[in-house]
Amino acid sequence: MGTVVVIGSSNTDLVSSAERLPRAGETVRGDAFATYPGGKGANQAVAARRASANVRFVGATGDDDFGKARRQELRDEGIDVTYLAEHQGATSGVAQIIVDAHGENQIVVVPGANDLVDPASVIKALESDCSVISMVLEISFDAVLAALNAEHSATKVVNAAPFDSRIMAHLDQVDVLICNESEAAAVLGRPFDVRDETATKRAAEDLIGHGPTAAIITIGAGGAVVAHADGTQLIRAPKAKVVDTTGAGDCFCGVFAAWLASGASLREATAAGVVAGSLSVSIAGAQPSMPNRAAIESAMSDQPLA
Ligand code: RIB
Q1: Residue 265, Cβ neighbours under 10 Å: how many?
Q2: Do the beta carbons of residue 106 and residue 23 sit within 8 Å?
């Protein structure tokens, strides 16, 4: 198994479930509340680890109870947290999430210590061997830049989530860019409709025009489109019972990175990410929903790559 370095955020997700999401200024009655480990980076790290990759996580928490609990959980997963810094007096990242009856969500993130992820920790973490470096934009941009600027033979994967316009000047330093519909539209500066296969394939190809070697657009229940030197393909997702879509994109990215690190092609890694994402939506919470490698391989054998 290869090694993946994930550079990203760790949050505590405070999740309320309600029949529907509130409109601006409206109060709706919820029916359940739960606290889960989350954060786009930590979610990816857990997904990659459960998919059998060796994982080093670079991030930051505060010295509060949330941060200590998140660190211990990552350690319990078998993730190397040497470069997960603890900042005295800072608050750990928190996400307030509302999930509706269809599993759709709304998220407000207060990054706290995630904004303090240190470029020096990134550089240190990259001194040891790894084959994939996976980044999200929910942390200090300087940390992302340190990874992009590092002289390293590993494949550099950027999940442009949440979109940050500062990434635009660095897309030619990215090997694989992963976006959802809104992030891809932000990079392209134009909307497109993911229900239109031709338009989505063109959008993925146009993303490459902005600099990355390959581009992937995740389209939820529709699967993902991958554009690379050998062409552009739509990888369809298997049908899933949707309970909670929170973290499905992070699951895709973590499993994609794990598969890539174990020598899979871009297309095979995309297929694994799509299948894993569809498994994750049937379980509530971000990190609790990340499937293990056996479950992913079993679901993939039910849906061979065309
Ligand atoms: O992508 C889902 C994640 O976004 C949640 O776990 C939340 O913490 C926010 O970072």
Answers
A1: 14
A2: no
> Which of 9, 98, 246 has most ligand 1 atoms within 8 Å of its beta carbon, as the pocket-test mutant?
246
Cβ neighbors of 43 (< 8 A, separation 6 or more) are: 247, 250, 251, 254, 286, 287, 290
Residue of 104, 63, 100, 109 whose CA lies nearest to 85? 63
Tokens of 176: 């694989």
Pocket residues: Cβ below 6 A from ligand 1: 9, 11, 13, 38-40, 43, 95, 107, 109, 138, 246-247, 249-250, 286
Spatial contact of 20 and 104, defined as CB atoms under 8 Å apart: no
Q: Whose CA is nearest to atom 7 of ligand 1?
A: 39
CB 274 within 8 A of CB 303: no
| pTM, full prediction | 0.96
Q: Residue ranges of the alpha helices (H) in 190-247?
A: 197-208
Alpha-carbon distance of 162 to 271, in angstroms, equals 23
Q: Position 236: which residue type?
A: R
Average pLDDT over residues 60-71: 98
Ligand 1 mean position to 98 CA, how many Å? 12
Side-chain-side CA neighbours of residue 279 (13 Å): 27
According to the model, what pLDDT value does residue 306 have?
58
pLDDT at 305 over 80: no
Q: Which token pair is 178?
A: 């992963």
- Atom 10 (ligand 1) nearest CA: 39
Which secondary structure element, helix H or strand E, spans residue 267, and what is its range?
Answer: helix 266-280
Using the mean position of ligand 1's atoms as its centre, give its distance from the Cα of residue 306 in Å: 32
Q: Which atom of ligand 1 is nearest to the CA of 161?
A: 1
Per-residue pLDDT, 33: 97
Q: Which of 111, 108, 14 is nearest to 62 (CA)?
A: 111
Rg of the Cα trace of the chain?
18
